[in-house]
Specification:
single chain; about 270 residues; alpha+beta; 434 Repressor (Amino-terminal Domain); Umud Fragment, subunit A; nine-stranded mixed β-sheet; 11 helices
């Protein structure tokens, strides 16, 4: 129980509770709680369950995760109920960096760094050497990361664009037909339109904007991280939207003919 004592003390203080308050709520003596916080005594399973319910944080997190090393946004996520162990998600506590004022950085994963990110995404030593920046128009209460994409599967978003995503803690919040940046075991970082079939089939169906690419299924076990698309930055101007679909032109021609008939009737 390496982190249990420091975790319950941290969570208690963040709630503004005294030892008497927590001890009363958990129906134990204050001296017993003090013993747990000072690592003099070790709790049994029923006591662990009690602490888990009181703080709405899983036993696994209370024991295994050193909450003192997490950023403010990460702890806030836990306190709001987004505990990965409770949710049953394979997403983990995110490895992240902060600036000198303890504000979350937006780390940049460039094309040349994407291969390393696939294996180093959970390594604090790897994450802290990534370029980092801030965007004043993004929320300070959410976690963002930018990735450079490659290829033409998401045209009209150009090759080599930088896409920024908001970290998704709970996969149940993935919305179908919305764009996401997903870190996979085999393919690395992919940028696609997601169709959420996790509850029914245990997978996502990923679609490209470019119709030349066929959709494919991604099992839940292949997913390591999910980021909800926020915006993209590119040095390229988008191509003009030339409408080449004969059906579209036919519909437009019919609309013009209807308008002409209406004008004649109104004369």
């Amino acid at each position: 129980m390496t982190h249990f004592n420091t975790n319950i003390k941290l969570l208690r203080k963040r709630r503004g509770r005294t030892q008497d308050d927590v001890a009363f709520a958990l129906e134990m003596k204050r001296s017993t709680l003090s013993g747990y916080e000072n690592q003099i005594a070790q709790p049994g399973i029923e006591t662990l369950i009690g602490f888990s319910r009181y703080f709405s944080i899983s036993i696994d997190t209370l024991i295994k995760v050193d909450l003192t090393t997490l950023s403010e946004s990460q702890i806030s996520q836990l306190e709001r109920g987004y505990d990965v162990y409770i949710k049953g998600s394979t997403l983990r506590i995110l490895t992240t960096t902060v600036d000198s004022q303890n504000n979350e950085n937006i780390e940049l994963v460039e094309e040349k760094a994407k291969a390393g990110y696939t294996t180093g995404f959970a390594d604090p030593e790897y994450i802290k050497v990534l370029p980092a920046f801030h965007l004043p128009f993004l929320s300070s209460n959410k976690k963002y990361r930018s990735f450079q994409i490659s290829g033409d599967s998401m045209l009209p978003i150009p090759d080599k664009s930088y896409v920024t995503g908001e970290y998704v803690v709970d996969w149940n919040f993935i919305r179908s037909h919305q764009p996401y940046i997903i870190l996979t075991r085999e393919e690395g970082v992919v940028f696609k339109i997601a169709e959420n079939k996790l509850k029914e089939e245990g997978l996502l169906t990923l679609h490209s904007l470019n119709s030349l690419y066929q959709p494919y299924n991604l099992p839940i076990g292949e997913i390591r991280e999910v980021w909800k698309f926020v915006h993209y930055i590119s040095s390229e101007m988008p191509e003009p939207n030339h409408e080449r679909d004969p059906l579209t032109e036919t519909v437009k021609q019919l609309q013009r003919e209807v308008q002409a008939i209406q004008m004649k009737l109104n004369l």
